[in-house]
């Protein structure tokens, strides 16, 4: 079994230093996380297993010494390195007291960085193997996906079963449900995670170019083919090729896809020579492929080749218990990006989100949370949400009622929202005040 790459967190407000460190560390086969502030670093430390921390000292708002103090209290066994452009004797002593194992002065060489890493990891205490988790414990996070609903766990259970083999998979679901996220979870959670993951939106490639883009072409195969070129299949060699919107692939491409799945080989446009490929194909669609088969726009034999394993990603309206976790994820992600801090959401605003039907699914929720963060001055409230959500009708669960009664309840709700202001309520409802009074009677 391949060993997991060490995760190294780099913290510096200098983007150039961050990029330099990341390049050096990747060339040494480490996995890196970057943070441009201590606040962002704290979020990463909270949710990610970090094996080593590299931080600058002089940073705005909260400095690196405070980060080292926090890391010592919460992650005492994690090695820590300091990189700074302001060295001094007192500074060195303070850094050593703070728990850092070494001190690098900018500019530094790759060899110096490598030596410091070796020292840090050499003094790292050996980890005891984690105790296996009981099978009946349900986690609410898998890869970059979050949820606690039965629908969520149905998906992650299938992902867990297929992640370490190269069975062909078809992911079905409405737009915005996170089909690509599921595909990435399959790839990056399994033993092929170091191999390429190539995502292709078939719907975004013009039909006359699909074959050349997917399978590559030979020089002179068509006008503009000035050199030999590999396609997405060759780029994904050894890893995963994710074909999104597979229902938009042309019939010509479908025929070649079928051969690729059956024979594990492809042929470039303009070539007569077949080329063996070793990849896993994951396809996704929001279309009803059975209906497309009936219309003769999708090959039935290709459909059955694609559905060795089928994963149905549920719409958000069928997993509403996951909304609080998704909101928390997006608040953390975009709060740091837009406001450099973690924002909270008021309970009544969360209730509005849980009530909504979500035709655009998780993508729509993510967009609305981004907007709310930008519009909010602090805690996100109902006022920061789009009107479409504020005035969404919540149908009662007591059974069917007369239309007039349902209309009256909605008018009362709008009136409550305007704090009894009938003029504003009438404006929202696009009726006059007399009609408003009639509907309340």
From TrEMBL:
Record flagged with keyword Phosphoprotein: yes
Domain Response regulatory, residue spans: 7-121
Cited InterPro entries: AAA+_ATPase (IPR003593), AAA_lid_NorR (IPR058031), CheY-like_superfamily (IPR011006), Homeodomain-like_sf (IPR009057), HTH_Fis (IPR002197), P-loop_NTPase (IPR027417), Sig_transdc_resp-reg_receiver (IPR001789), Sigma_54_int (IPR002078)
The organism's place on the tree of life at top rank: Bacteria
SMART domains found in the cross-reference section: AAA, REC
Keywords associated with the record: ATP-binding, DNA-binding, Nucleotide-binding, Phosphoprotein, Transcription, Transcription regulation
4-aspartylphosphate sites (modified residues): 56
Pfam families per the UniProt record, alphabetical: AAA_lid_14, HTH_8, Response_reg, Sigma54_activat
Sigma-54 factor interaction domain location: 145-374
Protein name (record): Sigma-54 dependent transcriptional regulator
């Amino acid at each position: 079994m391949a060993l997991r790459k060490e995760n190294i967190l780099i913290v510096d407000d200098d983007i150039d230093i961050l990029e330099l460190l990341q390049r050096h560390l990747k060339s040494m086969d480490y996995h890196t996380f970057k943070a441009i502030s201590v606040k962002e670093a704290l979020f990463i430390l909270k949710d990610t297993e970090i094996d080593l921390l590299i931080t600058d000292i002089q940073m705005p708002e909260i400095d690196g010494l405070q980060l080292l103090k926090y890391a010592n209290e919460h992650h005492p066994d994690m090695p820590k390195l300091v990189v700074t452009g302001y060295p001094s004797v007192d500074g060195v002593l303070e850094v050593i007291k703070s728990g850092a194992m070494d001190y690098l002065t900018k500019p530094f060489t790759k060899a110096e960085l490598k030596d410091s890493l070796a020292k840090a990891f050499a003094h790292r205490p050996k980890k005891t193997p984690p105790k296996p988790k009981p099978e009946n414990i349900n986690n609410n996070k898998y890869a970059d996906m979050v949820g606690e609903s039965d629908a969520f766990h149905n998906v992650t259970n299938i992902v867990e079963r297929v992640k370490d083999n190269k069975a062909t998979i078809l992911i079905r679901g409405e737009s915005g449900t996170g089909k690509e996220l599921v595909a990435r979870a399959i790839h990056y959670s399994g033993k092929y995670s170091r191999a390429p993951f190539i995502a292709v939106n078939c719907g975004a490639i013009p039909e006359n170019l699909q074959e050349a883009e997917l399978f590559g072409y030979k020089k002179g195969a068509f006008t503009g083919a000035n050199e030999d070129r590999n396609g997405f299949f060759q780029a994904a060699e050894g890893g995963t090729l994710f074909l999104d919107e597979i229902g938009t692939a042309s019939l010509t491409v479908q025929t070649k896809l079928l051969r690729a799945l059956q024979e594990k080989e492809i042929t470039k446009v303009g070539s007569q020579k077949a080329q063996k490929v070793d990849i896993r194909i994951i396809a996704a669609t929001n279309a009803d492929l059975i209906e497309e088969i009936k219309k003769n726009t999708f090959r039935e034999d290709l459909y059955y080749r694609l559905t060795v394993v089928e994963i149905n990603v549920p719409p958000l309206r069928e997993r509403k218990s996951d909304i609080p976790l998704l909101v928390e994820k997006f608040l953390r992600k975009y709060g740091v990006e837009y406001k450099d801090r973690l924002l909270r959401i008021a309970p009544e605003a969360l209730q509005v989100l849980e009530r909504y039907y979500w035709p655009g699914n998780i993508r729509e929720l993510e967009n609305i949370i981004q907007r709310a963060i930008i519009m909010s001055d602090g805690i996100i409230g109902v006022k920061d949400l789009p009107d479409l959500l504020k005035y969404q009708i919540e149908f009662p669960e007591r059974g069917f009622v007369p239309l007039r009664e349902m209309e009256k309840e909605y008018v009362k709700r709008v009136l409550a929202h305007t704090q009894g202001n009938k003029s504003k309520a009438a404006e929202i409802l696009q009726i006059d005040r007399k009609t408003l009074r009639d509907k309340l009677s």
